[in-house]
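Question (not urgent): is this output format expected?
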Amino acid sequence: MSDTINIRGHNARVTITIIGYERPDAADESDANWLSAEITCDAGDFTGSVATSLTTHEITALRDDLRRAMDALTGTVTFSPDEEALVLNLKFHVTGEASISGALQRRGEVSVALRFAFDSDQTFLTETLRELDAACNRSPIVGAMH
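Got this back:
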């Protein structure tokens, strides 16, 4: 079963679809926490999609950082996973609005990037936080001591 996390705004959306653990039987904690994912960006007339890997640690940090910023209605949340398929910045304003910018990219023999910037608000990002909570519950950090 997959989880979908939408970072929505006005006329744009970044979607992270978590497909599942890459190595569910891995004994090593660092190997066990990798997730297969697909990231899609729909921004105006442009759409891009990239298959990538993320870690449970990265998704959990995004959730925790977003929660803190939404509680304070200030600050910037930066999501820049190790695999570099997505760079995402969410800058919060005291009005409850947020400016979202970043790039969906694929590096390699042919490198491409879809850069985006759009506005969002608490209504959209409250749903994002709910989706992040669900994803973190379904794909928790393996080997974490609580």
